[in-house]
Write a structure and sequence with these properties.
It contains eleven helices and nine strands. The radius of gyration is 27 Å and the shape is extended. The protein is an alpha/beta fold and 295 residues long. The longest helix is centred in the last third of the chain and has 15 residues. The strands form three sheets. A five-stranded mixed β-sheet has the order 4-3-2-6-7. It folds into three domains: 97 residues, Nucleotidyltransferase, domain 5 (2-Layer Sandwich), CATH 3.30.420; 96 residues, no CATH class; 45 residues, no CATH class. Helices cover 39% and strands 13% of the residues. The N and C termini lie far apart (80 Å).
């Protein structure tokens, strides 16, 4: 038998004197920033200047752009920058037309960047999507007269969805019905998608979906994640949306002030014994009913 090999004793904590340490995060950031800003290359154009000019040449002639504040990228910046959000502008072609780090979401913090964006010769939009419209409409009409503002559908839906209990047994069904209250799918697009699913054209193994399987997909988030890119959405008229939201709210609420005419049909979660709606869900629904005309 071979002799058992004895493992070497590991170095105890603080047992040796360390002469070299890895660089700090700030040092790595400064080195990367210096390298990307350097013009010491054959074409004498730094990466920072190249990326800046690529963004500045994005055009929007008679099209649509969307402006919003995003908070996720701020995690990649040093705290000493003082940024709380990134104001971004995207066009209908999927390109980014402007990005600005701002200390808050106030209009005054991105007003200069927005004005410079509208001053571009190639930037003449027809409509704008926002997460706050009609708020700040005076400012946008001032820097871009005649622009048509609209409230983004995603943010409109999230105002209600964010107030719902995600662990409730009826949450997935309620979200599906909520979306169906606001818009419908374009008829020919929906017909083509159903044919493709039943003929197995959208499955890697050629699986042909049955009617019941498609119904189960529509009741889950999988249908939205997989197939929404194939379907155009058609919004209902404002008053239709208001009526649909009223019916939807009555279907899932627990109590009603008009039990005879509009009874509540919701239920507590059988496992967690919690309601689907939180305290601010009713206010969110009422707010969305008022803003339906701006969708």
């Amino acid at each position: 038998m071979e002799k058992e090999k004895k493992s070497l004793t590991y170095v105890p904590k603080n047992g040796v004197f360390i002469k070299t340490f890895p660089p700090l995060g700030d040092t790595i950031h400064d080195m990367f920033d210096a390298a990307s800003s350097s013009r010491s290359n054959p074409w004498q154009l730094s990466d920072t200047d190249c990326h800046t000019r690529e963004i500045q040449r994005v055009s929007c002639d008679g099209g649509i752009f969307a402006q919003d504040h995003t908070f996720e990228p701020i995690k990649n910046y040093q705290k000493k920058v003082g940024a709380k959000a990134a104001w971004t502008v995207g066009t209908g072609t999927g390109e980014i037309a402007a990005v600005k780090l701002v200390p808050s979401t106030k209009t005054e913090d991105f007003a200069h960047a927005a004005k410079q964006l509208m001053a571009r010769p190639c930037f003449n939009p027809k409509a704008m999507y926002s997460d706050t419209w009609p708020n700040k409409n005076t400012f946008w009409h001032m820097i871009c007269p005649g622009i048509e503002g609209r409230l983004g559908l995603f943010h409109y839906e999230q105002r209600i969805i964010s107030t719902m209990c995600k662990k409730h047994i009826d949450c997935s069904e309620a979200i599906t019905n909520l979306l169906a209250s606001v818009y419908t799918y374009h008829g020919p697009d929906y017909e083509n998608l159903l044919n493709a699913l039943k003929e197995g054209k959208l499955s890697a193994n050629g699986h042909k979906y049955s009617t019941s399987e498609i119904a189960d997909l529509k009741a889950s988030r999988v249908f939205q994640d997989r197939y929404s890119k194939y379907l155009r959405k058609q919004l209902y008229p404002p008053q239709t949306i208001v009526q649909n939201l009223d019916d939807w709210f009555c279907k899932y609420k627990l109590t009603s002030s008009e039990p005879d005419t509009r009874p509540a049909r919701g239920r507590l979660d059988p496992v967690r014994v919690v309601s689907l709606f939180m305290a601010d869900t009713k206010d969110a629904v009422e707010n969305c009913k008022k803003k339906a005309q701006y969708l």
